TrEMBL record, chains A, B:
Residues 96-221 form the GST C-terminal domain. PROSITE patterns: GST_CTER, GST_NTER. Keywords: Isomerase. One of its GO terms (cellular component) is cytoplasm. This is Maleylacetoacetate isomerase. The keyword DNA repair does not apply. The gene is maiA. Signal peptide: none annotated. It comes from Pseudomonas mangiferae. PANTHER family: GLUTATHIONE S-TRANSFERASE YFCF (PTHR42673:SF21), MALEYLACETOACETATE ISOMERASE (PTHR42673).
Length: 221, 221
């Protein structure tokens, strides 16, 4: 988990089912960047993200973390921006500032308003100490996903029939597809999301997405 | 709330106590940009963010929203990036990609891992339907703030005695100060955060922060 990578070599510390790590895997694949994986099991050993060796690398105690030579960068969206600035081609974001803002606003809606509420650590806190039972936890999960994806769906009208970069996916799809994966895993209703489902089916046909899928990661169980 | 601004004129749709709107007010002030305010009361009228006129501008149904001429941008961090790209001077982010990533990672830790859990809509859901009582809701609030700020504090070691841009604050401080405001409002323990408190005291002495404070906004009650 804490081996030192050679300078300039990319190592992704993540967990197969972490949707934030999944975003970064897609982004690395879209940019055609080779990377090693250093799995951090979020449940085993009381959560390996709390281990001293990992905390020394990432005091935030969360995944993902990208190590680039001697630089360690936490937070999936900070990693996407860093990759875009240090390995600009192929771009993940459109060139126009307004189009970039539209993409970031939709990605941040997923990253700030949907995903954090359904993180493993949050679901655990709902169970204990709050004593919320499994049915109510699942309803909580679906509530935030369904509310959030309904407005994502409206935002996707700008991209009807296309990807966020016209003929290819990027930053936006790297955030949307992992959230859709979670939505399906928890049986959220996607009836109101035909644009999202159409975009997803086109993404999922691409190698960059297929190879980033949770089930094909080395630490998948 | 929905008046049309003149082209190129900036209008911030926000709420005095929204810490995401507070981030944008600080950023606008740091860049010396004039802007109008269009208050969206998050409680009155069942939440004015749900009104049809506001939803037409922002289908995400959240504040803040920045309107720049005929462009509407939701999500505070998308707004900060947009301002940085369209009005680059004075910069909110450092120039070096690694330093930019460090700043964004700390800001995103606040924006993704602390703030969303303590949003008004989340606290309301905890109360109803989950039936979590006020004491347990306050403990929830403090848990996420204290856990998150403890790791932010470690990340601030890189800036000891300085601002994130050396001699002046920027993107990082625009995200930290509103979170600290919330922490104080909910009596969170800040004993482990001397760096944050030192940085905050230097920010709060500056006009850009003083004029962005919730209590001096036109809609403050």
């Amino acid at each position: 988990m804490s081996r030192d990578p050679a300078p300039g070599e990319l190592t992704l510390h993540g967990y197969w089912r972490s949707s934030a790590a999944y975003r970064v895997r897609i982004a690395l694949n879209l940019k055609g960047l080779a990377y090693q994986q250093a799995p951090v099991h979020l449940v085993k050993d009381g959560g390996q993200q709390h281990a001293a060796a990992y905390q020394a690398l990432n005091p935030q105690g969360l995944v993902p973390l990208l190590v680039d030579g001697d630089v360690a960068i936490p937070q999936s969206l900070a990693i996407l921006e860093y990759l875009e600035e240090t390995r600009p081609q192929p771009a993940l974001l459109p060139a126009d500032p307004v189009a970039r803002a539209q993409v970031r606003a939709l990605a941040l809606h997923v990253a700030c308003d949907i995903h954090p509420l359904n993180n493993l650590r949050v679901l655990k806190y709902l169970a204990d100490p709050l004593g919320v039972d499994e049915a109510a936890r699942n309803a909580w999960y679906r509530h935030w996903v369904e509310t959030g994806l309904a407005s994502v769906e409206q935002g996707l009208a700008a991209f009807d029939g296309h990807f966020s970069l016209g003929d290819r996916p990027g930053y936006l799809e790297a955030c949307l597809i992992p959230q859709l994966y979670n939505a399906r895993r928890f049986d959220c209703s996607l009836d109101g999301c035909p644009r999202l489902l159409d975009l997803a089916s086109r993404c999922e046909a691409l190698e960059a997405f297929a190879q980033a899928a949770p089930e094909v990661q080395p630490d998948a169980q």
